[in-house]
C-alpha cells in the first residue's frame, strides 16, 4: 500500500509541475504577443506623425513655389485622394491582402514558430 500511495503522490506532483510549466509558457507567449502588438501600434503612431509633418512640409513647399497658399494644400489633398481611390479599388486584391496578412503574422507571431 505504501508504494501505491507514493506513486500516486509522485504522479500528482508531476501533474502539478507540468501544469505550472504550461501556465508559465502560455503567460510568456501572451506577453510576447502583447509586446509586439504594442510595438506595432507605437510604430503606426510614429508613422502617422511623420506622414502628417511631411504632408505639411510638402504643402507649404508647393504653396511657396506656386505663390498660392491654398494650391499647395489642395494638391497635397488631391494626392491623398488619389491614393485613397487607388487603395479603395485594390482593397479586395488577394496579393495585397495576403502580403499584409503575412506581414502581420510574421511580426506578431514571429517568435512562436521558432521556439516550437
TrEMBL record:
- Keywords noted in UniProt: Membrane, Transmembrane, Transmembrane helix
Record bears the keyword Membrane = yes
Transmembrane residue ranges: 37-61, 73-90
Q: What is the lineage of its organism?
A: Bacteria, Pseudomonadati, Bacteroidota, Cytophagia, Cytophagales
Q: What is this protein called?
A: Putative superfamily III holin-X
Amino acid at each position: 500500500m505504501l508504494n501505491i500511495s507514493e506513486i500516486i503522490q509522485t504522479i500528482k506532483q508531476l501533474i502539478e509541475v507540468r501544469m505550472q510549466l504550461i501556465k508559465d509558457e502560455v503567460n510568456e507567449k501572451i506577453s510576447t504577443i502583447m509586446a509586439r502588438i504594442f510595438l506595432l501600434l507605437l510604430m503606426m503612431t510614429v508613422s502617422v506623425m511623420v506622414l502628417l509633418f511631411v504632408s505639411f512640409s510638402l504643402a507649404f513647399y508647393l504653396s511657396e513655389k506656386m505663390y498660392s497658399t491654398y494650391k499647395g494644400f489642395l494638391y497635397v489633398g488631391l494626392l491623398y485622394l488619389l491614393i485613397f481611390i487607388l487603395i479603395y479599388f485594390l482593397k479586395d486584391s488577394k496579393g495585397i491582402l495576403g502580403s499584409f496578412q503575412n506581414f502581420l503574422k510574421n511580426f506578431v507571431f514571429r517568435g512562436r514558430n521558432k521556439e516550437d
